[in-house]
Amino acid sequence: MPRKPRFRLPGLVQHIIQRGNNRQVCFFTQKDYTVYLDRLRHYAHQHHVSIHAFVLMTNHVHLLATPQVENSISLLMQDLGRYYVQYVNKNYARTGTLWEGRYKSTIVDTDQYSLAVSRYIELNPVRAGMVDHPAAYPWSSFQANALGKNIELWQPLPAYLSLANTPSGRQKSYRELFAKPFSDKTLAEIRLASQGEWVLGSEHFKQQISIQLSNRRPISPSRKQPIHG
Questions:
Q1: How would DSSP label each residue in 143-169?
Q2: How far apart are alpha carbons 7 and 11 in whole angstroms?
Q3: Per-state percent for the chain, helix, strand, coil, to nearest 5
Q4: In CATH, what number does 14-203 get?
Q5: pTM over 0.90, yes/no
Q6: How confident is the model at residue 224 (pLDDT cuts 50, 70, 90)?
Q7: According to the UniProt entry, where is the signal peptide (predicted)?
Q8: Strands, E, within 4-139: which ranges?
């Protein structure tokens, strides 16, 4: 089955997932996490990508990011992946690939879904049974979004800024979101979109994306694309 073309629409939030090859471990020591985050900050700045949420798990990474220019996420992931593989191979006397050949990404409806995906990302360590609460996991953006830690690479989502008028108010409102469990519907939608690289959002939002893409790729499973002009 041919690969879907990448989403190359600047200014739209994307949920990105990159997994270790055969789900192998990608982070071995605390230094590895710090090196990855430092390079993520560096290449995000270089390629004009805003990072809103992230989590580094032992064998995969989730990012919620907005590219400011076309193709900037692809460039970010290429440079970051290349650097980190070289770092790991050098420091652990190994050779060969580290990541799966292709990261996954999907466009996220900023208004209705971006905060939900941010929560989904930061709850990964809880779902994996690594911690009881996201605040206990040091390698995620929960530290910035909910606790106000200064993380240089982090930039707030527009929906996050609308939670309150002050930083402390936004952090409090964001923490309160975690008191509510995900609905089965929302969880299923996020997982379906991320696994299939579909657009995550309302039908109106999907229609808008389809028009911007000029129907060059499907945006939903088994969806008949409208014909324009």
A1: HHHTT----TTB---HHHHTT-SSHHH
A2: 11
A3: 45, 15, 40
A4: 3.30.70.1290
A5: yes
A6: very low
A7: none
A8: 14-19, 49-56, 60-67, 104-107
Closest CA to 47 of 70, 28, 31, 17: 70
What does each C-alpha distance from 18 to 78, 98, 101, 111, 215 come to in angstroms? Answer: 11, 10, 9, 25, 26
Measured in degrees and rounded to the nearest 5, phi and psi for residue 52 equal: -105, -30
User: Taking the alpha carbons of 161, 162, 164, 166 in that order, is the dihedral positive or negative?
Assistant: positive
Q: Take residue 74 and report the two structure tokens written for it.
A: 């692809």
Strands (E) located in 81-182: 104-107
- Banded model confidence at residue 219, pLDDT cuts 50, 70, 90: confident
Spacing of C-alpha 160 from chain mean position: 15
User: DSSP E strands: which ranges in the chain?
Assistant: 14-19, 49-56, 60-67, 104-107
**Cross-strand pairs, 20:** 99
| Residues contacting residue 109 through CB under 8 Å, at least 6 positions apart | 199, 200, 201, 202, 205
Per the listing, tokens 């193709």 go with: 71
What's the chain's average pLDDT? 92
**Alpha carbons 71 and 5: distance in angstroms, whole number:** 12
- Residues ≥6 apart with Cβ < 8 Å to 182: 116, 119, 120
Of the candidates 11, 21, 18, 10, the residue with the CA atom closest to the CA atom of residue 71: 10
pLDDT category, 2, cuts 50, 70, 90?
low
Check pLDDT > 80 for residue 223.
no
